[in-house]
Specification:
Blueprint lengths: L2 H4 L16 E9 L3 H8 L2 H7 L3 E5 L7 E6 L7 E11 L3 E8 L4 E13 L2 E11 L3 H32 L10
Antiparallel strand pairs: 1-7, 2-3, 3-4, 4-5, 5-6, 6-7
Helix pairs in contact: 2-4
Length: 176
């Protein structure tokens, strides 16, 4: 990976129990809002397309074993439709979902971790582990774009959560 791609590496992403091994890209951000308020945005798949520039279409529910459907818009590409299975839901703490394509040659494991910094502040790590037989190839080719997309999602989450916490009206992302 290049130095620019390294800026999106989350080296400990695959270390959590139940996660696939592979290259992990993502973004971490601190948000001036309580974890419970941030979780409300994270767990509401139906509302993601209103504020989330990465997931331009979403449907489903944050329930373990359930299926979510989405369209992801990476920089410079047309939206790509997909679906994933919800793996873990721990309110105010962790959402994980997994998908596989090309007969399992490409596997992706997505996670959003919320860590309480104080009762009114949290840190969010938003990542994707790219695994399977072609995971390293996909990570080299797409890692930077995926990392940039996750950063955009985190920045939009921060904006929306902080605006809601301060009592300001929401401002949906352009194109949503």
């Amino acid at each position: 990976m290049t130095a620019e791609q390294d800026s999106y590496l989350l080296p400990h992403g695959p270390d959590a129990p139940g996660r696939i091994s592979g290259c992990c890209v993502g973004h971490r951000i601190e948000i001036d809002a309580p974890p419970e308020l941030v979780w409300d945005f994270v767990a509401d798949f139906e509302g993601w397309s209103v504020w989330n520039p990465l997931y331009v279409e979403t449907s489903g529910h944050a329930e373990p074993g359930s299926q979510i459907r989405f369209a992801v818009k990476l920089d410079g590409m047309k939206p790509q439709k997909g679906s994933a299975r919800i793996v873990t839901v721990r309110p105010n703490d962790l959402l994980e979902y997994a998908l596989s394509s090309f007969g399992g040659l490409v596997k992706a494991f997505r996670f959003v971790e919320i860590e309480e910094v104080s009762p009114t502040r949290c840190a969010v790590s938003n990542g994707e582990i790219m695994g399977g037989a072609l995971g390293a190839l996909i990570a080299r080719a797409m890692g930077r774009k995926v990392g940039k997309g996750l950063e955009g999602m985190n920045r939009a989450l921060k904006r929306e959560a902080e605006m809601k916490w301060s009592g300001q009206p929401s401002t949906p992302h352009a194109g949503g």
